[in-house]
Amino acid sequence: MGPFFLLRRNWSDTFFHVLVEPWLTNVEATMLPRPWVKWAYEPVRAQDIPAVFMRAVATALQPPAGPVFLALPLGDWEQPCESPAVVRTVSQRIAPDPSRLAEFAKVLSAAQSPVLIYGSGIARGNGWDQAVAFAEALGAPVWAAPASERAPFPENHPLYSGGLPFAMGPLSKKLEGHDVALVVGAPVFRYYPYASGILGWNLPASVGIALAERDSGRNRPVIAVIGDGSFQYSVQSLWTGAQLR
To answer: Bigger pLDDT: 233 or 143?
Structure first.
């Protein structure tokens, strides 16, 4: 199947259609085409459309080429972009592309302070030996990509710097001073949405504050207000609270 992607304008974002859910409304637009496409996605923010569009094109063109599906809510087109869209180039070779490798080599050779960011794809592809050899040849520090589910690099290696955080600001701080970052085997980058990193925090924090109140002698009561979903992230805090009375 050829490298093309399908575009759907989602009319269900009008108040009338959301209210009455007519016969032609597709509530979960990405579910229907998934068995037949390489990737199906609907951006959650209008500002994500430029990057999502570039990813759709890249995914469609990469071997084996095939269709992808984007569901783009109609009202999103009226929102301003946060920054200019970055146009991606796509290699269509299955084996390493010599011209692309030469491009990487040229950039790395000219770098004053390169850094490597490795992801779980290295571990899944049994690429530890190659990853270590490359890092040692380059003499560059190695960071693990945010939330790598498998270790991409030996954590006792002198070039290992740790895991990158999920948030834009702290991640940028970790990479300060480097002029080139090469990412291998990982997406660039996954972030937590604002404030979502506190899921489940209320309950253990409340237990800790209650213990501090008791130990300090103030003994003020502590009331925890938490939703049922967030509560399930740290339900073990109830056991801690009960054991420590």
So the answer is: 143
CA distance 57 to 76: 19
Burial status of residue 153 (CB atoms within 10 A of its CB: 0-12, 13-18, 19 or more): buried
**Where does residue 207 rank: exposed (0-12), middle (13-18), buried (19+ CB within 10 A)?**
buried
What is the model's pTM?
0.59
Place of tokens 């109830």: 238
Give the residue from 55, 77, 59, 79 showing the smallest Cα distance to 67.
59
DSSP-assigned letter for residue 86 = P
Helices (H), strands (E): how many in the chain? 9, 7
Q: What is the chain's mean pLDDT, rounded?
A: 86
Domain spanning 5-78: CATH superfamily: Thiamin diphosphate (ThDP)-binding fold, Pyr/PP domains (3.40.50.970)
Q: What does the alpha-carbon distance between residue 90 and residue 78 come to, in Å, rounded to a whole number?
A: 29
Q: In what order do the strands lie in the sheet with 180-184?
A: 160-163, 142-144, 114-118, 180-184
> What's the CATH number for 98-184?
3.40.50.1220
Sequence spans of domains, the chain: 5-78, 98-184, 196-243
Distances (CA, A) of 36 to 46, 53, 60, 182, 219: 26, 19, 12, 32, 61
